[in-house]
Every structure is written in structure tokens, then in C-alpha cells.
């Protein structure tokens, strides 16, 4: 998955162009945007929602939303893939939180890492993304507990209370792992000039 | 809760983007971000920091039925068909508007009855398919005449920019539409080359809302308000 920086820039420029044309109701550009991004966005949704039907539905709604709001993408403020990912992730997380409220009494299964499959674990993902993104130092600078909590929250969509249950720790402890981990990540990323 | 301390805001934004907030807290942050650029910017900063982490997920191709379902939904909605693949839509769109356009074009171009009418007309319509602007030009002239045929959005801190939409490649700016001061609502947009050349092989025009001075990127950055196909009367 590690793209070199030049290829990554080219890809971003291409996606930004497709978004600009989508904003002008250019259906061919929109189709191309779908071809280039849907398997990435579907993977994001599938991972968080853990259910293909729900992930499919979110993907569909997200692209309809992208079609209508492509004009509000501002290239100077975010990378196109980041913008697209935020649309899908927000929908997934909203749905997940809604679902939890609906099923609060039967929510006893272990979420996340214990799912029996051969997918890479959240921790593996966090570390491999660090490979790809030149933020290796930042992720590696986190304490093990912070790393684990952030990886589970980010890739699996676990809330603070789910993290506490999953990691068998008091809620306050887990919250402070997350908070300190994020603070440290921010200081490191901003210091390295990675985020913008 | 209308005011949030900066440190608190940053922590909330971080947790919103990471995804750990409860349903109620998520809803509250999303609500705050809607009317408040400071909150929206804090969210964006965290998205820029964290979301690239998602790129390490192995891609999974969605089922093939998803794309046709998306297409059906965007085409089923009024006025949002593709102007590229679906020019037919525009023909049926505003027959009345087009008739008006032709009539007006005839009036505009009447002083030269002895030459063939080498002119073009574009009726630009919004999402509701109602004509908003009428653009006309003499093919050899270097001026586009633009007439507002409906009340066009009043904009104090935004300008309207006119774009040529080629079959292939990026939209090309034709310039900013001057604010109309005249009672007639007709404004002139000067071109650097004759209209026939500027619009050669261009099937359609669009108007987008841009910051003062026009799009900083050379591509439309704001919402596209109006689009319409070029009708050539020659």
C-alpha cells in the first residue's frame, strides 16, 4: 500500500480534478471517482460496521452525498481521499452509535480483535500505515496502551465505553490513554509538518 | 453550549474524528461544526492528521450492484442528470426558456440582417431547471452578453464565474460575470479571443459561486449554480 510521495501527489491531483468535475454534474468523472476510491471507502465502512449489508448501504448513501456536495470540497483545506473518507467514516460512526443505543441490552459480544478472521489486526494496520505515511516515528512514540486504544477506536469504531469493556480497564483509564495518545500524536505530527 | 474553550474544543474534535464519542456527544459536535468555522476547522485539522491512517486498510471491492444503485439515485433526482452523457435532458428541459432565448437573440442580433446569423445562445438553468441566465454571443465578436432572466442570488462576498465545459479535460474559466448595475440586467463579459474560437468544441457552460476575484485554483471551487448547453444558430 505504500505509495511514494510523487505517486501520492499525482493521485491526489487526479482525485481533486475528478471531484471538481463531479461538482459540475459530470457523470463520467463521477464514475471514474467511484472506480478509483470505492474499494478503499468500502474497506473503511466494512471494518467499522462489520456487516456487508450495512457497509454497502453507507457506501451508496455516501456517494450520493458526494455527488451532491462535491462542490463543497476545498482542495486547499484537505486531501481528496481524506475528505471522502471523512464522509464515509462519519456515516458509519453515526450508524454504529445509533445501533448501540438500540441494542444496549444484548451488546455483550466482544467486538473488534476477537472476530475470527485473517484480516490484519487494528494494531498491525496502525503500524503498517505508519510505514506508508512517514509518521512511523509518531506512532512508535506512543505507549503500548495508547497505541492499542487508538488502533481499536480508529479501525473498529469502538467508543470509550466499548474500549473499556474490551480492554477490561476502568473507563477513566481508557479515556486518558486515548486523550494522551492523541495529544502526543498531534504534537509529533504538527512538529514534523506532516498535517496541514 | 455555544462556546467551547480552545483546549476542550481540540480534545472534542480529536475524539470525534477518532470515533470514541458517544452518540449524544457526536451529535453535539456535529451540530456545533455546522454553523461555526472554528469548530469545523478543528475537525478538519484532526481529519487531516488521523484519516490517512485508513489508507493502510486492504481495499475491498464493493459488490457490483452498488454502482447501478447510486446511478439510479442520482439520475432519479430532478435536474441532476449529466450534461455530458445526457444532453437530451437539456433539450426537453426548458423549451419555453429556449424559445425566449431565440427570440431575444434575434432581437439582439437584428442590426445585421444581411449576414447569416453566426451566433450562439446558452440558457443557463439551476437545479430546479428554471432558466436563470441567458448568454449570447456573435461568433466573431469578443463579447458575451449575459442577461439575468430570473432573480440571481444576491451575493455580497461572492462572485459568479462563467466556465466553458469541454467534452474532455477541465472546465476553463471564461471570466467573472460583472455585477449588474443597469436596469436592463444585461452585462457584458469581454473575451480575449472571438467567441467562436473561445467556445469551439465546447458543448456547455456553467456558472459557479466563487470568492472575490474568482476561483483561486483555476477550477470551480464553489457550488455550481447554473449549467446549460450551447445552442449554435448557424
Task: Describe it.
The complex is a heterodimer of chains A (196) and B (234). Chain A is built from nine helices and no strands. With 196 residues, chain A is mostly helical. Helix content of chain B is 32%, strand content 24%. Chain B has seven helices and eight strands. In chain B, strand 1 and strand 2 form a beta hairpin. Chain B is elongated and about 65 Å long. The chains are: A mainly alpha (196), B alpha+beta (234).
Number of strands of chain A: 0
Termini separation of chain A comes to 22 Å
- Distance from first to last alpha carbon of chain B: 62 Å
Number of strands of chain B: 8
Number of helices of chain A: 9
Structural class of chain A: mainly alpha
Number of helices of chain B: 7
Estimate the strand proportion of chain A.
under 5%
Give the ordered list of helices and strands of chain A: HHHHHHHHH
**Helix/strand order of chain B:** HHHHHHEEEEEEHEE
Helix content of chain B: 25-40%
Biggest chain-to-chain interface with counts: A-B, 83 and 61 residues
List the uncertain runs of chain A. 103-116
Estimate the helix proportion of chain A, in percent.
over 70%
> What summary fits the major beta sheet of chain B?
8 strands, antiparallel
CATH class annotation of the largest domain in chain B: Mainly Beta
And the CATH topology of the largest domain in chain A? Answer: Rna Polymerase Sigma Factor, Chain: A
Mean of pLDDT of chain B: 77
- Inertia-based shape of chain A: globular
The assigned CATH architecture of the largest domain in chain A is Orthogonal Bundle
Amino acid at each position: 500500500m505504500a505509495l511514494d510521495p510523487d505517486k501520492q501527489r499525482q493521485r491526489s491531483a487526479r482525485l481533486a480534478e475528478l471531484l471538481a468535475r463531479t461538482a459540475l454534474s459530470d457523470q463520467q468523472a463521477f464514475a471514474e471517482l467511484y472506480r478509483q476510491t470505492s474499494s478503499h471507502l468500502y474497506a473503511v465502512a466494512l471494518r467499522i460496521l462489520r456487516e456487508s449489508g450495512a457497509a454497502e448501504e453507507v457506501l451508496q448513501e455516501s456517494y450520493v452525498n458526494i455527488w451532491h456536495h462535491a462542490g463543497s470540497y476545498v482542495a486547499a483545506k484537505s486531501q481528496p481521499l481524506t475528505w471522502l473518507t471523512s464522509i464515509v467514516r462519519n456515516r458509519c460512526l453515526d450508524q454504529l452509535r445509533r445501533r448501540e443505543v438500540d441494542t444496549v441490552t444484548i451488546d455483550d459480544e466482544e467486538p473488534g480483535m476477537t472476530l475470527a478472521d485473517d484480516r490484519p489486526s487494528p494494531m498491525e494496520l496502525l503500524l503498517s500505515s505508519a510505514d506508508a505515511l512517514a509518521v512511523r516515528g509518531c506512532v512508535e512514540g506512543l505507549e503500548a496502551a495508547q497505541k492499542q486504544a487508538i488502533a481499536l477506536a480508529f479501525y473498529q469504531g469502538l467508543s470509550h465505553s466499548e474500549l473499556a469493556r474490551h480492554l477490561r480497564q476502568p473507563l477513566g483509564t481508557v479515556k486518558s490513554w486515548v486523550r494522551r495518545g492523541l495529544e502526543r500524536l498531534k504534537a509529533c505530527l504538527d512538529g514534523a509538518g506532516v498535517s496541514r | 453550549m455555544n462556546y467551547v474553550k480552545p483546549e476542550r474544543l481540540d480534545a472534542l474534535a480529536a475524539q470525534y474524528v477518532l470515533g470514541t464519542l458517544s452518540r449524544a456527544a457526536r451529535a453535539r459536535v456535529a451540530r456545533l461544526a455546522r454553523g461555526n468555522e472554528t469548530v469545523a476547522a478543528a475537525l478538519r485539522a484532526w481529519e487531516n492528521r488521523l484519516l490517512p491512517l485508513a489508507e493502510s486498510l486492504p481495499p475491498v471491492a464493493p459488490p457490483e450492484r452498488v454502482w447501478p444503485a447510486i446511478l439510479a439515485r442520482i439520475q432519479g433526482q430532478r435536474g441532476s442528470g449529466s450534461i455530458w452523457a445526457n444532453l437530451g435532458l437539456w433539450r426537453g428541459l426548458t423549451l419555453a426558456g429556449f424559445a425566449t432565448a431565440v427570440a431575444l437573440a434575434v432581437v439582439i442580433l437584428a442590426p445585421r440582417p444581411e449576414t447569416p446569423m453566426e451566433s450562439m445562445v446558452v440558457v443557463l438553468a439551476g437545479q430546479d431547471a428554471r432558466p436563470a441566465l441567458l448568454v449570447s454571443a456573435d461568433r466573431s465578436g469578443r463579447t458575451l452578453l449575459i442577461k439575468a432572466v430570473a432573480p440571481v442570488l444576491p451575493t455580497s462576498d461572492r462572485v459568479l464565474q462563467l466556465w466553458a465545459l469541454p467534452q474532455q479535460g477541465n472546465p476553463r474559466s471564461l471570466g467573472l460575470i460583472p455585477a449588474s448595475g443597469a436596469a436592463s440586467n444585461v452585462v457584458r463579459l469581454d473575451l480575449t479571443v472571438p467567441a467562436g474560437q473561445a467556445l469551439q468544441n465546447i458543448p456547455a457552460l456553467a456558472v459557479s459561486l466563487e470568492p472575490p476575484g474568482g476561483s483561486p485554483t483555476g477550477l470551480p471551487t464553489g457550488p455550481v449554480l447554473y449549467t446549460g448547453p450551447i445552442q449554435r444558430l448557424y
